[in-house]
TrEMBL record:
<dbReference type="GO" id="GO:0015459">
    <property type="term" value="F:potassium channel regulator activity"/>
</dbReference>
<keyword id="KW-1003">Cell membrane</keyword>
<dbReference type="Pfam" id="PF13499">
    <property type="entry name" value="EF-hand_7"/>
</dbReference>
<keyword id="KW-0630">Potassium</keyword>
<dbReference type="InterPro" id="IPR011992">
    <property type="entry name" value="EF-hand-dom_pair"/>
</dbReference>
<dbReference type="GO" id="GO:0008076">
    <property type="term" value="C:voltage-gated potassium channel complex"/>
</dbReference>
<keyword id="KW-0631">Potassium channel</keyword>
<keyword id="KW-0472">Membrane</keyword>
<feature type="domain" description="EF-hand">
    <location>
        <begin position="153"/>
        <end position="188"/>
    </location>
</feature>
<protein>
    <submittedName>
        <fullName>Potassium voltage-gated channel interacting protein 3</fullName>
    </submittedName>
</protein>
<dbReference type="GO" id="GO:0000978">
    <property type="term" value="F:RNA polymerase II cis-regulatory region sequence-specific DNA binding"/>
</dbReference>
<keyword id="KW-0479">Metal-binding</keyword>
<dbReference type="GO" id="GO:1901379">
    <property type="term" value="P:regulation of potassium ion transmembrane transport"/>
</dbReference>
<dbReference type="GO" id="GO:0005634">
    <property type="term" value="C:nucleus"/>
</dbReference>
<keyword id="KW-0106">Calcium</keyword>
<dbReference type="GO" id="GO:0001227">
    <property type="term" value="F:DNA-binding transcription repressor activity, RNA polymerase II-specific"/>
</dbReference>
<keyword id="KW-0406">Ion transport</keyword>
Length: 247
């Protein structure tokens, strides 16, 4: 049922179709299932000790920190002024220099996905956020990306996903690029999937992906092919929710 999803066949064939056992989503910690690991990381430094914010909610505590151009950021994103202030406070607490580097991303994802190896996925995700490729992410770029991932339209999220898969940023997705991303996600998820994944599962998924996406069979997927196929495929669209859980 999840054939062709953006994350691959994490669940394979639902067990409800085999042996009468109900299929279960990958079992992850509650923190890992937060809508956005990056937001949870930011807010953990601003929430009072012992408190626990609910899934997907921002800790809207009174703050004195304020990013430059707050009104402009509010216009660029779908966050409220209070949400931006809260995110900025946490961002500055965690990154006093005002910049996030790749090593920080790796530490974040190692924390939220301790059952696997998140190093490579964190590398790819960092590069997707690092639009200018200078090796550091400013707060402004950080929240613009989060806004798309958490509250963007389907079209905006798919464009962002295409950018993630387009590792060398040449405007095309190759099988090699797709396989690298897929393998990094499987590595990060570790053994907390059911049934246990086979090593060749990512490659099998990539083959199915290209059969659906590569309309003219030229070996690469363009942004147009990606958007058109994804928006017409229910299995791919349903996988976007799971995709958000590893951001």
């Amino acid at each position: 049922a999840s054939d062709g999803s953006l994350l691959g066949d994490l669940g394979h064939t639902p067990l409800s179709k085999k042996e009468g056992v109900k299929w279960q989503r990958p079992r992850l910690s509650r923190q890992a299932l937060m809508r956005c690991c990056l937001v949870k990381w930011i807010l953990s430094s601003t929430a009072p000790q012992g408190s626990d914010s609910s899934d997907g909610e921002l800790e809207l505590s009174a703050v004195r920190h304020q990013p430059e151009g707050l009104d402009q950021l509010q216009a660029q994103t779908k966050f409220t002024k209070k949400e931006l202030q809260s995110l900025y406070r946490g961002f500055k607490n965690e990154c006093p220099t005002g910049l996030v580097d790749e090593d920080t991303f790796k530490l974040i994802y190692a924390q939220f996905f301790p059952q696997g190896d998140a190093t490579t996925y964190a590398h790819f995700l960092f590069n997707a956020f690092d639009a200018d490729g200078n090796g550091a992410i400013h707060f402004e770029d950080f929240v613009v990306g989060l806004s798309i991932l958490l509250r963007g339209t389907v079209h905006e999220k798919l464009k962002w996903a295409f950018n993630l898969y387009d590792i060398n940023k040449d405007g095309y997705i190759t099988k090699e690029e797709m396989l690298a991303i897929m393998k990094s996600i499987y590595d990060m998820m570790g053994r907390h999937t059911y049934p246990i994944l086979r090593e060749d599962t990512p490659a099998e998924h990539v083959e199915r992906f290209f059969q659906k996406m590569d309309r003219n069979q030229d070996g690469v997927v363009t942004i147009e092919e990606f958007l058109e196929t994804c928006q017409k495929d229910e299995n791919i669209m349903s996988s976007m929710q799971l995709f958000e859980n590893v951001i």
